[in-house]
């Protein structure tokens, strides 16, 4: 029985073995170059464009895996099928404008497992490209040259474990983003350059095997650069890392990175040291899609971490340091993909923040600085308020939640600021700084600002609270104010419409109220305001004494961009000063009258009303000449009759009414407690005492 069974088994298997032997003999002895026309036609028909193997075509059976080195290759005893083809070409679609060929190579070598083919699996252990040329093109409508016709679901599975390539060229043209990038790669002699070592938790990164040179244009800006990368992509293990290093310039932006890509077959992680530099952070928007403000020239360095979740990437620029203008920056920012908009979040700190470097954010930098950034000058001569437009169309690119703090402000215009803290929020094109806190003149100013960019013109609203501003620190360069003291407190609410600071203020409405009590002020300042010539001379000769300041109340109502004085009075032991008039924020004009009334008798007082007129850019402050000339003329006429009589024209008897400071302050406090302005769809919240206290603690 056993002999009969073996005999039957032999009759069954012998023909099969014979077929296998004959097939293998034909496979490796057949001149496959004779089959090239058939192969070319079949592949061309399948992919819908011309495919051609124009050189020698060979198929061999080799032992051991050619993808392993040393003793490891002998552990693999199963045979490997080696297919080599010379001069391989794949054409571009007919609509292409970048040449006839999409891809070509001097030689293509494919190593695959033959027995896996029986189960319709093409397991390519190595794909080796010699001198490849790849030209990829993407049209503005999103269609591209590398997508092949859909011939329905395939019953075959393809797996590529390793990809190796030597010298080659690549070009990528994308009309949607106006990019034309080309790169040339050449082998690094000896493969001697070491790769980065920051991936100790993964497999050891291979050495650099290729060096490349970049060129091209992006939005008509020149691209140039160079770098290095590995020559072999190991695609079998998810922990595989692929080294890459580059240093390039795109227009005014300089970019350098050095690190690794995890799992190159479907990149899931990136870990590189990234250095950025350029004329303005805003110039990064076309490159990154991250909305950043206009700034002075910048340079940063930090670690860029990329993590892929499903089909989307999350990015972290970790522990970066750098400069913007003369200011330093440090922090961490995260770009998180989410719907309906990605989120930018993090914290940025500046230890030395120069005020001039904040100017471009609101368009307040000079035309000279704009020219230095390669931008056309915008600010008209004689215009003080910034006219540069906010580009709200980009505000919908992402949401933001970023905390910014400037610990020490470097002043360039004698503005007594000392620090700044703000929470920046952007959601659905509504930008808010809530709160925005900065130290001013020994006190602090806390604001809630909302800019709603959902309409063609921004709806802007600010609510502000100023607390404990020191009188003498408001005028740090004025010697006569050194000994003055007193605290100013104020509140304001303004609403405006427009896409620049100038337009917002020109259309603004609201209220501004400030008060001060229990202070003192320089007698010289007071006497100069009253033009008491004799006392001014006396003070100059014998010293300046302080005069008690009983109260100050300043109350403005803003309507259609005109800030009118509702009530403005300063009461001291020696004088009362009343101010009337208006400030036109639209035309940037001053029109204020300052009328000092001295208490008691002043000898040689040529007291006359003062004015503050002119433009913001060129203000004109001084005494009204008419009353002063009449008073001086009267003194001269009386002197002709009797010298003692001339003094009568220069004596102020002081009949000024008494000011009830407690009543004035209480009335102003009621307005300060809830200043009003036009409502908006995205209102700014009233500044609370809790916000003020929190901001003080965070500074």
UniProtKB/TrEMBL annotation:
Name the source's superkingdom: Bacteria
Signal peptide location: none
Q: Where is the AsmA domain?
A: 4-564
Is the keyword Ligase assigned to this protein? no
Mark out the compositionally biased spans (Basic and acidic residues): 688-699
Segments crossing the lipid bilayer:
9-30
GO terms for CC? plasma membrane
State any GO BP term from the record. Answer: regulation of protein targeting to membrane
- The UniProt annotation puts the region (Disordered) at 669-699
Keywords from the UniProt entry: Membrane, Transmembrane, Transmembrane helix
Q: Which PANTHER family match?
A: ASMA FAMILY PROTEIN YHJG, DUF748 DOMAIN-CONTAINING PROTEIN
Q: What is this protein called?
A: Uncharacterized protein involved in outer membrane biogenesis
Q: Which organism is it from?
A: Solimicrobium silvestre
Tell me the organism's taxonomic lineage. Answer: Bacteria, Pseudomonadati, Pseudomonadota, Betaproteobacteria, Burkholderiales
